[in-house]
Structures are given as C-alpha cells and as structure tokens.
Amino acid sequence: MYQRLSRSNRLLSYAMWLVLLVVFLFPVYWLVASSFKTEGQQFAIPPIWVPSPFTLENYIDLFSDAKVINSLKNSFLVAGMTLAAVALLGIPAAYSMARFRVGGSKMMLVIFTARLLPPVAYIIPLFAIARGLGLYDKQGTLVVLYTFFSLPLAIWMLVGFIATIPDEIEDAALIDGASRLGVIWHVVLPLIRPGLASVTIFMLLSSWNEFALAVTLTARHSRTLPVTMYTFVTNQNIAWGKLAAAGVLSALPIVIAGLLVQKHLVMGLVSGSGK
Amino acid sequence: MTFSHVNPLKGIMTPQRVKYALALPAFVFIIVGIIYPTGYLLYNSTTAWSLTRLDLGQTFIGVDNYSKLLADPRFYSSLRITAIFTIATTSIQTVLGVTLALLLNRNIRGEGLVRTLLLIPWLVAPFISGFNFRFMMAPNIGVIAQIMESLGFDAIVQASILGNPRTALGALILAHVWNGVPGTMLVVTGGLKTIPEELYLAARVDGADRRQILRYITLPLLSYAILISAFLTTLFIFKAFEMIFIMTGGGPGDSTEVLAVYQYWVGIRSLKIGYGSSIAMVQLLVAFIVSIIYARLMFSRAD
What we know:
The complex is a heterodimer.
Chain A: H1 7-35, H2 57-63, H3 66-100, H4 104-116, H5 123-132, H6 139-162, H7 167-175, H8 180-191, H9 193-205, H10 212-217, H11 225-234, H12 240-260, H13 262-270
Chain B: H1 15-44, E1 47-48, E2 59-60, H2 64-70, H3 73-103, H4 111-118, H5 120-123, H6 126-136, H7 143-150, H8 154-159, H9 165-193, H10 197-205, H11 210-238, H12 242-247, H13 259-269, H14 273-302
Antiparallel strand pairs in B: 1-2
Helix pairs in contact in B: 3-9, 3-11, 9-11, 11-14, 13-14
C-alpha cells in the first residue's frame, strides 16, 4: 500500500520490527552463542547472553571426533549423489515435459501429488524393504530415497524454468547439427542457471538436512550428521555445546544459500517443498 | 560428461523417440517409487508381522489390524492430538504469517532487510530447531525457564515446559509456528505483490480509509494466497515428525503423540510391522485426500 506514513507511525513500525526480530532470531542467536560457550557456561544462572570467554573448543571437539568426521563424509556423499541423480533424471525429463508436453497435465498432476506424500508414512515399509534386501545402513539406500522424494519437486520447478526459454534459441543450435542432449547441456542449462541454484537449495533441504529416514535406515556405518547429532542426545551426558556447534555447521550452508536465492523460494514452497 | 555436437545416435533415435527417451527414466522411477512402497505398505497392513517374532513369519490376517486399530485407545488419542496440533498450528501460523506480511508491506525503508532476516527460522532444518528448543526449554536452568521465571511464571518453570503434559503440546505448537511462519509470510507477500496498485489508488480516490481498503480490497484479493498457504501448512504439520520426536518423543505419557510418532514407535521401535503399517495407512490416506484437494486447487488456478 503505497501511502506515506506519518513520522510517529514509522517509528512505531521500527519499534515493532525490532521486537519481531528479537523474538524470531533469538533462538538462532542462542544456538550460535551456545556453540561458542564452554560446557560449564551452557546452563549458567543467570544465563550468559554473550559468550565470554569466546571459545572454539566445541568446534575443535567436533572435528576431532572420528564419528562426526565419518558422518560429515556420509552427509556430503549422500547429498552430492542425490543432487547428481536428480540432475541426471530430472533435467532431461523436465526438458521433455516443457518442450514436447510428454506426459501431459496428467503426469504433472502425478508429480505434484507425489511431492506432497508424507515420507514419514513410508518409514515402516522402507525399513522393511531395506532390511529384507540387505540395504539397511547403506549410503546408497538414502541416495535412492532422497532422489525419489526430491525428484518431483525438481522436475516441477525445472519445467517452469525451461518453459521460459524461447524455442528459437534451441532451433538455431539444432540446425547447426547439435543433438538434443547437446542442446540441453550447451544451451538450456546455461540459460537457467539461477533456477538451477534454487532447485539445488531445495534438494539440499531434503537431503543434507533430512532426519527421519536417516535415523531409521542408518547405523554405525552410514550415519549422516543429523543422526550422529541425535546420538549426542541419547547419551547420559548431553554435550550441548558440541551439539550446538554441529547444528550451526548443518544449518549454515542452507541458510546462506537460501537467503541468496530467496525470490525463488516461494515457487518451491507452493509446489510442496517440505523440510 | 561431454556431449558432441554431432548426434551419435542419429538413425536409431528418431526425434519422436528422443522425446520419450528423455522423460522415461524419471517417469518410471517416480511411478515405481509410488506404487512399490505404497503397495507394500498396504499389503503389510493386512498381515501379522513382527520382527521380534521372526519365527512366526508374516501371515495374512485381512482387516484384523484395522479392527484392532478401531478399538485402540492410543490410536484415538493420537488422532485427537494430531487434530489439535494440526489445527492449532495452522491457525496460529496463518494469522501470524498474514499479519507479518501485511505489516511488512508498507513501503518503509528497511522492510526488505527485515523480511529477509525473518526467513532465517524457516531455513533452519526442523531437526536442528528441535535440538535447539529442547535445549532452550530445559527445566529450571534452560534459558526460556529463566526468562519466564524473571517474568513471574515460576509455576510452569518448576514443572518443566516439555515435561508437563499440560504445556508440552503448546510448546511444540509454538516451536512449529516459529519454524513455519516465514513460509506463510513468503507466500502471502507473493500474493500481495500481485494486487495492482491502481486498485488502491482508486479506492483512496473514492475516500476509503486504511481499514476499508484492508477489508474490501487486500484481504479478498489475498484469499487465494492465504488458502494455498493454509493448505500447505496443514500438509506439513500433519506429517510433522522430527521436532516432536526430538523434543518430546511423544511424551510425557502420550500427551504429544501424533500419528506420525505413534506409527514410528509401533513399527520401528516395537518392530510390529503389520500393525504399524495400518496406522501409517490411515496417515497416508488423510494426507492423500488433503493433497488431492490442494493439487486441484493449484491446477484449477494454473489452467
């Protein structure tokens, strides 16, 4: 509503924003602050609002824990492989759906609905299948499942991006003798780079930060970072500082990347991206 | 991976075949991925199968799991808690999200920055928020307990927020609202941007005040965006699992045990695959009905 606000009204707005920001960002601040406190300071009375002395011991602890290193590796591997699999399956399919309307609106509806199905309802059959086929505690199992649960959203978003590219640009390359795959690789992908970035964020939201499937389907060997963090809690002594440091590490890449592509977030959101 | 400019498959792949070949792997993957686990889930729900009694194997028992479900008080309790949790979270989040979107759409300098900063809670994964809130809500010595104590709410603090059946569900609702409200704000802000400026100008020329503009222009034109975000929130919250699992695990007692958590305890912890599957089927069915309505809503607008 483009209407000049009076000075007092504006001041009121600023005051209100301040309250909002404090309420909404305090938990995030607390997580970050706790990651820089010693264990003894975590539950001090009164609370220690600003860590002092500022300690890195939690991060050092974290990186000297072999289990954490192993699960970090697993998280990287699983998220990376999921991204690759989604790209390999999703980009050609989205291209075909956008350009040639293969599958038509029926397939679009299937894809849309598939994205909305709750993964958590599938935990029991997936657990039974994984055990039955000897796929329990394997990184590959998570990759297949994350690919399945992210592919519909990726295709949905990519169809939207690819549809914005005019046919003529591709026709020129095709006349020069390029193959379809060549056109996708050399012409289409460079043109939708910003779109690809936001698809990537959503894929990471459901692989790098996934907890429910990972906690059910992995054990010592293939645990990802979220599951290892859960093992910190079930111990007798909860190492909150270390847990906070791990939380900051898991959240940071997504928060930064998400803020960078924020204008595309709505699109992924309304087409059913959960977290 | 390199793609030459000369088509190596010329002759084998006619243009017609290429179209389908590009889409086929993903389509097969998605369709098999829906049918196989769903079919298996449905089948398991008609069997007696406990992984703690492997000697008994898996035996077909028809609808027995479902009749058992209908006589299971814990199932009814989890249905009731799921309903309260979903309706309360969705209502609070929608009202708050719409309010925030409206308050941050007044063209005051700095608005964009505030909106961006408010997105952060939404970008923090639920499992991280879950750990963080559990930490902050620790009884007596947690930071929230200390803040509440200094504000004079000693009684709640002493019983612990997450350890008290009367406050645990409320705390979970607030935690989910915190995590989800930026999403609502984002969708509603998107809706606000589509309202043409001329409408406001015309209304003001006709002498409408702020309240009337909100009541007769903004809110009616926002109704679709609000509806979309309310459906989305319902879907997300109905399947919410991670934060509840981490913060309370369904307790104390079964005061925060939603369907998602109940089926997890039965199917994964107690390894009663058959019975757990019947609970999961109920969950899937409800989610599917809401999803179909939502998809229709989205598609009818898109066409």
